[in-house]
């Protein structure tokens, strides 16, 4: 009589496990193996799909998630060198397949192409669809990582195809595996930006993968209104921005840029976030005028950062006079964040010279916004031969140089004192006592 009880308990357990899986967003590990049962692709993610299809009453949008029972098809492949690419093909529901095709070069690999084939005759997902055809859509992706590192993206990453948007969450993907498991080292996606610990949720209003990535809205759980800690971000990558006009180059600026914004979230909590400017994803514009030089940085997302350099003709100095920022913060109470200050006096040097600072400089624009500048060397207005002129080092660097000098001096003094003490001691001992 023990058997029926056990038989009943098992489905219940499965159901519980399934529910737990659903609550975790139903992520799954997908593995593609070669003929020797060695894994060449591993992937762990949850995915949501947004599609438009035609019903009798007109077009309809439908969203659905990759179900927990999605399977890797054996049409997946590890690829053949120079002949075919590795691909991960996942099937689910009534004949839908997601196909991730990888490509690599010496240093990096990427999901070069992603295609989604969906069958409109699946009435569970596409109720009252007019057509029962199979449709297919595809797109390139920005999923990319270093060879022998896993791609890691906690944030949502949306891949926009023509009629389908695929949103990945909490993704770990690696192809060209070398030892049958995910590497320890990872390449973070751009969406995670400088603060990868932000919870992953779907930003339905954000479009293509941007950098600096706009923060993704947090789940609507209540939290007390206190400032949230912001994890320490990476140092922004340095880039040489140039602005030229009819008289040649009027701005040469090598620097790494980081934005530090503080804002109120929808639940009234205060949030401080830092965003690195990724020069690879930024449009650079600017203007040369006799009295003004501007630098305009537009990132793929709706972030625009504007610098204006002014000059003092009588003292023959240039300096950073104005910073403007317009950006979108999807989780902010007021998603349009604007800050401007046109009475700055930073990064100042004599005309024809360049201002240089190895130390990080924080320039306050407003109470809620500062720009952190890393490893800056900058010269505005007169730039001879597109090269930096004589260097004027910032105060911070000079102070930093004083420390080793002071320490060195102190050490030298100490050595001297010990030496003198020793000499005196020796003399005394010669005078007073007999040494053995
Ligand atoms: C299987 O392993 C053998 C020996 O390591 C190798 O020669 C062969 O190419 C492998 N086959 C595949 C499909 O990877
Ligand atoms: C479907 O979604 C798109 C954008 O995602 C929107 O422009 C369109 O109006 C939506 N259509 C319907 C019928 O809801
Ligand atoms: C997946 O996509 C690649 C590239 O388009 C293609 O070569 C391959 O045949 C596709 N696999 C399947 C099973 O559709
Ligand atoms: C590999 O591809 C990446 C991204 O497309 C590119 O930045 C890099 O320069 C390439 N490396 C080589 C060695 O071709
Ligand atoms: C759906 O497909 C079946 C065959 O698979 C076909 O007989 C039928 O006419 C199709 N229906 C429509 C509405 O196209
Ligand atoms: C996208 O949808 C429209 C109408 O909904 C359709 O006419 C078009 O063929 C679809 N495109 C693709 C690539 O499926
Ligand atoms: C993200 O995925 C990892 C496994 O890759 C899992 O341990 C973790 O719980 C997931 N986090 C969320 C928030 O789903
Ligand atoms: C950002 O600004 C806040 C004050 O608003 C400050 O406490 C924090 O240290 C700054 N973070 C960085 C990385 O500059
Ligand atoms: C946030 O604060 C405003 C004004 O102080 C108040 O009206 C609003 O209800 C608060 N919202 C939440 C979600 O607490
Ligand atoms: C920008 O691109 C260069 C060369 O393509 C690459 O070396 C660098 O890592 C990229 N920087 C970022 C932040 O992606
Ligand atoms: C370019 O040089 C000419 C002559 O030196 C000067 O008159 C003019 O204002 C300069 N233009 C700019 C944009 O600096
Ligand atoms: C920011 O937006 C304002 C309008 O609200 C506009 O005048 C200004 O030029 C914008 N600044 C930047 C840097 O895009």
TrEMBL record:
Signal peptide stretch: 1-28
Membrane topology: Single-pass type I membrane protein
Domain Lysosome-associated membrane glycoprotein 2-like transmembrane: 403-434
Cellular localization per UniProt: Cell membrane; Cytolytic granule membrane; Late endosome membrane; Lysosome membrane
Chain intervals for the UniProt region annotation (Disordered): 184-239
Biased composition (Pro residues): 209-234
Residue intervals passing through the bilayer: 401-424
One GO term of the biological process aspect: establishment of protein localization to organelle
Domain Lysosome-associated membrane glycoprotein 2-like luminal positions: 30-176, 236-384
Any single GO CC term annotated in Swiss-Prot or TrEMBL for this entry: cytolytic granule membrane
Main location class: membrane
CDD domains in the record: TM_EGFR-like
Bias (Low complexity) ranges: 194-208
Cysteines paired by S-S bonds: 153-189, 250-288, 357-394
Record keywords: Cell membrane, Disulfide bond, Endosome, Glycoprotein, Lysosome, Membrane, Signal, Transmembrane, Transmembrane helix
Family label: Belongs to the LAMP family.
Complexes and interactors: Interacts with ABCB9; this interaction strongly stabilizes ABCB9 and protects ABCB9 against lysosomal degradation. Interacts with FURIN. Interacts with TMEM175; inhibiting the proton channel activity of TMEM175.
Descriptive protein name: Lysosome-associated membrane glycoprotein 1
Organism: Molossus molossus (Pallas' mastiff bat)
